[in-house]
């Protein structure tokens, strides 16, 4: 990138933060060709690609809100640096470019704070095509859709792309449903890790979110135990020698680092995934994203008690404590339960989509059935990100999927 481009778009970190606050609110009854709901990695990337082709578009939402306000403080990204770039048409606005502009030393794994600021810096490409207000309702309004914003303004769009991520899909096991919300939270409601200092915390799960949260809690001074249903903990990259075999490793693994040898290469081609029969596609997807922790976590968890092969069968409040009964008859008393129990996609949980609209979306178990251009059965309505993973494969669960999603959608609408 030459210095002229740097001067026009990059700036320093403080300038980026000031510009984040600038928005260009829509007027009532404004119109556009494409409305993108969600300003996370997928929404911002889509907006950049649409703008480059002169397609009238609006990206709606606070940039990187879910990452900034929900992810645990101090978190590190599981994805490698090369798979942590948002997508723009020229590949100019990379994580490396942001760090160079902001004079931040590159690091791996990538800190959450760096990634959030990178996304906010990336959004400058959108200028007035970004509106930071949230969406209250999406209603069909032939031709197209009528979008009502939280302040009452309306936007009409020929197409709507849902890029709002996995926030509404958090899983809460039935055994915890009746416990007070302040005593049981999901890992991605656990932004303020430090408040658990000197508390007893049970972390449920064996995936990255559970294991990293356990490490962060321990480092913040909490007494932590990880309770995992599966009988062992998987670690990503435990056969590291497979990654150091030159051309052979390149044949086995894609740069996205999603899935084990062989599957990783297949996952890198979402269009091929879409052609695979659903039953086999599901097996590939679940194997690629099975619960596992990053290779840099075991050292941080040495002093954390991990109990595999155990389920919580009963949870009750006893004064200010939570009494947990496990399936082996043993009990635990804790101050808080943190759920690393994952997500279950269900598009009906998007509060801004009315029931009569979601009822028209063909689905398999909550995932929309998608075809070319991420189109669902409702004409003009599209889904990208995690909601597209069952149609196009597990790459769409990750930031690395923004490149494919943006180019596939742009190709479709351009036709």
Account of the protein in words:
With 415 residues, the chain is an alpha/beta fold. The protein folds into three domains: 3-168 and 344-414, 3-Layer(bba) Sandwich (FAD/NAD(P)-binding domain); 171-234 and 292-339, FAD/NAD(P)-binding domain (3-Layer(bba) Sandwich), CATH 3.50.50.60; 240-288, no CATH class. It is built from 14 helices and 17 strands. The protein has helices at residues 3-10, 13-20, 41-52, 65-69, 95-102, 112-122, 208-219, 247-252, 263-267, 270-275, 278-288, 355-358, 389-392, 402-414, and strands spanning 30-37, 57-60, 130-131, 135-140, 145-149, 154-162, 184-186, 200-204, 223-228, 305-308, 312-318, 321-326, 331-334, 336-339, 363-364, 367-368, 381-383. Strands 1, 2, 3, 4, 5, 6 and 17 form a seven-stranded mixed beta sheet that branches. Strands 7-14-8-9-10 form a five-stranded parallel beta sheet, with helices on one face. Strand 1 (30-37), helix 3 (41-52) and strand 2 (57-60) form a beta-alpha-beta unit. Helix 3 runs parallel beside helix 14. The longest helix has 13 residues, at 402-414.
CATH class of the largest domain: Alpha Beta
**β-strand number:** 17
Count of domain modules: 3
User: Radius of gyration, rounded?
Assistant: 22 Å
Mean pLDDT: 90
How would you name the CATH homologous superfamily of the largest domain? FAD/NAD(P)-binding domain
């Amino acid at each position: 990138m030459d210095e002229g481009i740097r001067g026009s778009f990059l700036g320093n970190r403080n300038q980026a933060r000031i510009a984040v606050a600038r928005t260009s609110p829509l007027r009532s009854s404004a119109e556009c060709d494409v409305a993108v709901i969600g300003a996370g990695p997928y929404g911002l990337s889509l907006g950049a690609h649409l703008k480059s082709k002169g397609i009238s578009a609006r990206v709606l939402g606070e940039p990187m809100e879910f990452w900034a306000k929900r992810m645990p403080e101090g978190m590190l990204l599981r994805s490698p640096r090369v798979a942590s770039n948002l997508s723009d048409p020229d590949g100019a606005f990379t994580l490396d470019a942001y760090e160079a502009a902001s004079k931040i030393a590159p690091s791996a794994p990538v800190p959450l704070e760096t990634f959030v600021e990178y996304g906010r810096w990336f959004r400058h490409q959108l200028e007035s095509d970004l509106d930071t207000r949230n969406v209250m309702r999406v209603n069909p309004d032939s031709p197209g859709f009528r979008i009502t914003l939280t302040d009452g303004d309306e936007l009409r769009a020929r197409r709507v792309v849902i890029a709002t991520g996995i926030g509404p899909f958090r899983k809460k096991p039935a055994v915890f449903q009746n416990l007070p919300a302040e005593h049981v939270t999901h890992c991605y409601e656990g932004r303020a890790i430090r408040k658990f200092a000197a508390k007893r915390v049970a972390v449920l799960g064996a995936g990255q979110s559970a294991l990293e949260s356990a490490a962060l809690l321990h480092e913040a001074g909490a007494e932590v135990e990880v309770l995992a249903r599966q009988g062992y903990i998987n670690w990503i990259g435990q056969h590291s020698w497979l990654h150091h075999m030159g051309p052979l490793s390149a044949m086995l693994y894609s740069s996205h680092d999603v899935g084990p040898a062989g599957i990783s290469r297949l996952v890198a081609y979402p269009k091929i995934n879409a052609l695979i029969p659903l039953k086999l596609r599901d097996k590939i997807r679940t194997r690629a994203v099975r619960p596992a922790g990053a290779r840099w976590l075991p050292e941080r968890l040495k002093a954390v008690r991990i109990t595999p092969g155990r389920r919580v069968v009963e949870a009750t409040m006893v004064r200010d404590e939570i009494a947990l009964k496990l399936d082996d008859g043993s009990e635990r008393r804790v101050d808080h339960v943190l759920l690393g129990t994952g997500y279950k996609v269900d598009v009906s949980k998007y509060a801004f989509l009315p029931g009569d609209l979601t009822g028209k979306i063909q689905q398999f178990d909550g995932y929309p059935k998608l075809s070319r251009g991420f189109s669902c059965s409702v004409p003009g309505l599209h889904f990208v990100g995690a909601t597209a993973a069952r149609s196009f494969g597990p790459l769409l669960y990750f930031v690395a999927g923004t490149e494919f999603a943006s180019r596939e959608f742009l190709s479709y609408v351009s036709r």
